[in-house]
Amino acid sequence: MAADLTEFIDELPLVDHHVHGATAHDLSRRAFEELITESDRPVPAWMTTFDSQLGHAILRHCAPELGLDPHASPEEYLARRARLGADEVNRRLLGASGVEHYLLETGYRGEEILGPGGMAEVTGVPVDEVVRLEQVAEQVAASGCGAGAFARRFAEALWERTRTARGLKTVVAYRHGLDFDPSRPSAAEVTEAAGRWLGERETAPSDEPPEGIEGGTRDGTETGADGGSGRRPDRRLGLVQDAAPATAAEPGRRGWRLTDPVLLRHLIWTGLDRGLPLQFHTGFGDPDVDLRRADPLLLRGLIERAEPTGVPIMLLHCYPYVRNAGHLAHAYPAVHLDVGLGVTHTGARAAALVGQSLEVAPFAKLLFSSDAWGPAELHHLGARLWRRALARVLGWFVAEGEWSAGQAARVAAMVGAGNARRVYELTAPRP
Amino acid sequence: MAADLTEFIDELPLVDHHVHGATAHDLSRRAFEELITESDRPVPAWMTTFDSQLGHAILRHCAPELGLDPHASPEEYLARRARLGADEVNRRLLGASGVEHYLLETGYRGEEILGPGGMAEVTGVPVDEVVRLEQVAEQVAASGCGAGAFARRFAEALWERTRTARGLKTVVAYRHGLDFDPSRPSAAEVTEAAGRWLGERETAPSDEPPEGIEGGTRDGTETGADGGSGRRPDRRLGLVQDAAPATAAEPGRRGWRLTDPVLLRHLIWTGLDRGLPLQFHTGFGDPDVDLRRADPLLLRGLIERAEPTGVPIMLLHCYPYVRNAGHLAHAYPAVHLDVGLGVTHTGARAAALVGQSLEVAPFAKLLFSSDAWGPAELHHLGARLWRRALARVLGWFVAEGEWSAGQAARVAAMVGAGNARRVYELTAPRP
Amino acid sequence: MAADLTEFIDELPLVDHHVHGATAHDLSRRAFEELITESDRPVPAWMTTFDSQLGHAILRHCAPELGLDPHASPEEYLARRARLGADEVNRRLLGASGVEHYLLETGYRGEEILGPGGMAEVTGVPVDEVVRLEQVAEQVAASGCGAGAFARRFAEALWERTRTARGLKTVVAYRHGLDFDPSRPSAAEVTEAAGRWLGERETAPSDEPPEGIEGGTRDGTETGADGGSGRRPDRRLGLVQDAAPATAAEPGRRGWRLTDPVLLRHLIWTGLDRGLPLQFHTGFGDPDVDLRRADPLLLRGLIERAEPTGVPIMLLHCYPYVRNAGHLAHAYPAVHLDVGLGVTHTGARAAALVGQSLEVAPFAKLLFSSDAWGPAELHHLGARLWRRALARVLGWFVAEGEWSAGQAARVAAMVGAGNARRVYELTAPRP
What is d(CA A185, CA A182) in angstroms, rounded to the nearest whole number? Predict the structure, then answer.
């Protein structure tokens, strides 16, 4: 029965409710190593990022997909990866992940990362979009906008941009922290804050950005204030286009990185008006995040104020605050959570996270995500490691006589796909 | 030997040092579902609270007590429950829990919940009382009391009310948070705060309560500002008397919900004067609790100031702050803890909590509680799940060669009953 | 293969990168009991500190080293310990720990505790020193120093004192909390703060110390403001010299306990100038520590500001914030961590901590320490329990097919010794 349950979970079609595109580029060793860590610092000469749970998981689970034995060496793995080429690697790793529907957060869409169309083409499954609030606001700013028009212009842009989107995302955890004033700012406050933001930007010389503003744009219309997980764009560009320094890709002017807490709140409240499920990055991430200020419990005030809207609040990732997130999901009908990203980076330990998510959170409130960005190994492992962890946790419940196998399979199907289909109103999969 | 240890723990007589009454009423499905969650929000139509660890545990462990197979369906379970009737259900579930002494927190004693006499009658074992400080204060206020007399009147009422009580309880975690000023307020501060509280109440029209005050009273003498675990009384009444809306049970005036931090501190310090073990709700609970402000570490200042009194400080439940509570129990002789409530709601995962409680806390500082309120399933599972979790954790220590079986049995007996007998000065059980 | 891995880890030579001296004195039962807890309160009459994970671990693992069966009684154990005498006990317990290099934190060097020379003599392995910043500053103050000269005098003393040292240590977590302003104080601020500190001390009568100052000195040159783990010196002296009250050992004047946050920051920044790896006590410890203010996440600001120095930041112990520390080690190249002290006090549960340390922290960032002080049981168990916990965690990874046995052995060797050799620039062990 444990074997049956494991097989059931291995073959379960998944909805990945928060993911980014895979890279279509080949990657040097340095680029690959820097993309399998959340750190944006250079990897010190005395270490390799393969010496991590994620590194070990790549060698264990991705190597066989590329035709190698499990536990290959990093050198063997990267040589095989280079020989096969990015397209074939993507085809194999994405194809073997068993994901049947992607909700792609497209906060950053350069040539190096596949967009919804590219992902759909490679994987052959539906790909819907999740729109990042901050990116829309930064595009409004970049297009030229007065302070008094900002709120209207942002709302118009958001509605236009999300006509077919399935959800919204905010990176307020990176830009300010989750400890923001949960009340809705007044129109006057928004105009005043927009004036500060837009005015500062207008008067700042292009080569002397305000402190902390490091983002750049790759072209005139797209502002890439940071990457998929909040990474700084100069880093990501630099990594993927290994030979070219980040600055070479920048057109000489700075991005509109939005960090003003009044405006960030305004985006969130406008997002609640829009009514699509609203995703919050919480917990573990790159060094931009102050982990103390990324505890989902800090969202309690907003969650309570947002209850009348009925908008689903999606707490992403949550490591190491999984139990705190579970409490919120228990207390408030709107709150859901996943343990993505943490599962990928904890590898052989991922069952510890999945286990905590199966404590006080109602089972209808749990979802699957990978939060993968770039190397298809992250997409593959997000699913693979989650399946293995879930099979261990649920298998243990069954083996100990606490749950029936039928209950375990049913909960696995809810968490893997059913809950996401309900929340995001996705159509049923093709037979 | 593992089987012997499991059997020993299964048959261990327990002292439940923090519990509320069982309901003597039959329950509709809606009422039952709402009573097996800490959330006070309506259960959304797209989910059932049976899809939770607690729900699965009911179907696994309570179903056989009612004559069904383990893992019955919710429909089967509730049908059988209805057929047997509340009295028989209580007799079976409470009887099979193996509790030999209850310390009943009687913050709310309506007809729907058994009081000490009723619980003693159903179970045939001793039931002693734990008195909630806030309830006593609210009764003093409701009886008519001037600000200048409040401190004296409260002390008199507390001493009178606790003549045979075994302990005191505070829900300051719900009413304010544990981040209160730990120093004792001066007499003048208390009088001033009492003036604000009593004055506000007197001038507030009955249909325009101050913000946040939602509680009501069921009769002229009892103030039910909230329920057993801090729940709002309107909710609890509504749930149990399923057909009758909450307001129908209210006599048309509002309760004296005490939330003033100066008065809450005053109650605690008067409680320390009284000298009975003082229980603090900490951690997980209903949405009224801000979990960030329910971390027991916030009590450090009070614990240090209270050391000269020698009063035992009982940290209740503590999820997910079990390790923090363990640190306090390690550092300070007066501090004890339990993992009740969390065990009930984490079900098959309860061993994770019990394991954390057996880290840095001295074994003489750990107690058992269920924190059950209402359905006897909660009383039953509080004990049953705790036994199973403890047997797993201690059994693993023994199997790994770290502990002897004799050490394990001895610690189980300390935590299950011996420590509570010492702290609350309970007489030995009847042979 | 699991057996092979366990044997490999059992025999792995370790570098203990944060440890204190063993006591060369025999210990009464009371003294022994008080030294196997972090609490500085008297042990209540109704409990014994043997009723703890550490107590059980002593009876399980140290008893056989003294010729007893595992799980001996406390009485048997202490009788055998007394018969053998402290020298023989030290020889056996230290010898069997398998530590091949000690980095001894010498913040307190009385006759009762072995210094580097004594430890090297008993163990026959290299012993290098880690110098406590606060002790050096307090020695400067005790030697007579004007406020204006303090910064220079402290720097001179630090360089002189650390000519052969391998690292620095700060107990700012005990003296203030990790929530200090991370910026470097100006010279004027340091002089002003030094004036307050030195002036207060000069004017305070010897029998009326400022509030909170309890430390004393044992002689004119050494200030023992607290013990190895931040313990108050009166306690430690009292415990070890069981017959003599603490005050009898004090020469009649009070110590220079440094708690000023400006000066504590100045010490840290001067320590960063010195350039040796800088150890921070974080997490669990004696009651002096406010655990809420000992979360390593509070160091994020300092870590970022210190990045240009390249100085390794060593987060010690971290319980229960192991995952938070792991995030910092993941994000910042300079940050390392260990789970010492927590392993010792969680005994049979230590695998839970070691498991958490092997989540998001890169494996090149993990080290081993015991943080032992006094009874050689703590030195022995720091190593023994860590080996057993690591073998369980890694053995499980291998048994589940997630890691190869070779990967597990390699990571064990990195964490047990290799990483410490790299960080502290230790020479290779003798063949």
Answer: 9
